[in-house]
Amino acid sequence: MYYEPGKSAHGLPHDPFKALIVPRPIGWISSIDRAGVVNLAPYSFFNGVASDPPIVMFCPSGKPAGKGFKDTRRNVEETGEFVVNVVPHELRRAMNATSAPVAAAVDEFALAGLAPLPARRVRPPRVAGAPVHLECRYLQTVELPCDDPASSNAVVFGIVIAIHIDDAVIENGRVDVRRFRPVARLGYMDYATVEDLYAMERPSAPPED
Known about the structure:
Layout lengths: L16 H4 L3 E2 L1 E6 L5 E6 L2 E6 L2 E5 L12 H9 L1 E5 L6 H6 L10 H4 L4 E2 L8 E2 L4 E12 L10 E12 L4 E2 L2 E2 L7 E3 L5 E3 L16
Antiparallel strand pairs: 1-13, 2-3, 2-6, 4-5, 5-10, 6-9, 7-8, 9-10, 11-12, 13-14
């Protein structure tokens, strides 16, 4: 099949785009507003984009009906801080529960039965039970084109200023993802758990003539 997004119909019951860019890591992002109200939400348009210094991004696209920007974006831009929590297989249902479109005053930690842990360098709490936490300082927001004038499209960047790794997932000096089985997003309502690994050595440069 062939189609041009925004110009020609794909002819399928659901937009296939998100089912093609897979699997996508999930940034389970905790933030806090100026009044101290905590928010926790998962974002599947999320990734690390640099390593020196380490920088992450997430895309809080869309706008809840009758509201401004999504709570996470508003909180991060107002306070300059957030935490990325890595979702292990055991907390997949709790992560899904925090994706509900609830009011800003609702505590998603309580909603999903999660316990908060204090961070060291930022105010937003970490998720207890998550094997990895990235404490981040807000860097910038880049506005993107948006086909829906009633919505929004943006990428939020943050610099990672502190990292927590559960010692139980470290083996022989390396993080073993099989010990926590991170959850990834696929298309539609589908998810995947990382369990099978294989390695490929990077090839050396060919000898010069």
